UniProtKB/TrEMBL annotation:
The chain crosses the membrane at residues 84-102. This is LPXTG-motif cell wall anchor domain-containing protein. It comes from the Bacteria. Keywords: Membrane, Transmembrane, Transmembrane helix.
Amino acid sequence: MISDNRVEPEQVDSIIGKVTKYSDHEGTYSGNFSNHFPKGTKYYNIKGVNISEAIAIKLSDGSYIKAVYQGEYPGGASFEWANILWSIAGLFMLVVVTFIVIKKRK
């Protein structure tokens, strides 16, 4: 959870990751995604603070803000009909191509 607390640059330690995917759709991604910060935003551990408690996020202006851990994100890859339809279309095309190849061999 993003807080309003600033982190002083001297409190910031090494980089621990970065945002790899931005999504404003709740529950659609897992891992290093953000619904607030753009892809590429870096995050760091804070000296003397366990990363399971809080991390520092580097803002576009070069300052840092604290994000506190509030448990596992309940989201994850969500069910999407588009994925199902593309899978069915791909399977259908495979069946059609297989049928055509078998028919031509006879």
